[in-house]
Design a protein that fits this description.
Blueprint: H1 2-16, E1 22-26, E2 47-54, E3 57-63, E4 69-74, E5 79-84, E6 92-99, E7 102-109, E8 112-120, E9 126-134, E10 141-152, E11 161-165, E12 185-192, E13 195-201, E14 211-214, E15 220-221, E16 232-239, E17 242-248, E18 253-260, E19 266-274, E20 281-291
Antiparallel strand pairs: 1-2, 1-10, 2-3, 3-4, 5-6, 6-7, 7-8, 8-9, 9-10, 11-12, 11-20, 12-13, 13-14, 15-16, 16-17, 17-18, 18-19, 19-20
Amino acid sequence: MKQILTLVATALCALAADPFVGTWKPVQLDQWKFTAATYRPSRIHELQVYVLNQANQYEQIYLSAEGNFLQSRVLAPLDGVGRKSRTDPATTNIAAKISAFHWAITRTSPKGTNIVHIIVTPDGRFFSERRTGKDAESGAELDGYVIYEKLDDAPAAAFLGTWGPTKVDQWKLSTGTPESAKSSKLTWRFNAPNSLVFVETAADGTATPDSIWDINGKPRVGNRAGNTPDRTYQIELVDAKHLRGNLKSNKGQSAEDFVISPDGSSITRTRRGTRLSTGAPIDEIFYYTRETK
């Protein structure tokens, strides 16, 4: 049993120390080399985030320089197995982890083959991408190089962006929650390392005040917007796709969970306990889907 626990602990430490996971900003732009066929020009202004979905499979998220969500995609598993492209069956992609600090992704089609080497420096501070070969779609020659510096470990980057209501016929509302909740959108923005800004916006565009979520699991006096001193709350990151809020007042206590689906496209939100304002029981479930506009 001791040996099994040691192996599990070692695996968890390895996941936590994954050098690719985090938020990366473009740097050393004078060394960048690319054409429109190699990389889209806007990348020089965008942050890149890697989130580990499961062993050897990552989600890649692009953010604006201000930390707002732009787009995301789940990458192919880094297992060296050839897979047909989802958008072009004539193209085969092979993604492999050469080492803990080195990925190689090969794309082959009737028009050519190209390979991307993504390498993190041994100190974990920088990563570079080197792309060569022929574009699988156009056959154009590719010769690109970009470099990024790590900003932080991006513990909750998967939540960034706006999420709209979906499957409202399956929502479960408790007494006191208005039907208008079914048209509200959720938005998370980057605030600082280990801190998010949360806003809930109604259909008419009315938004709640900016709510600062410090995702450190430590109790904080006030509500999530910091202006109700008779309440305490704590936000913890259960894992990269699961946020939990524990809220408490002198009248009630509740737990609220936000869980992102494995493919990163939707959120299930549950709220259980008693209302902070009245002490009335609540047992609710809501569904949202990512809006990428």
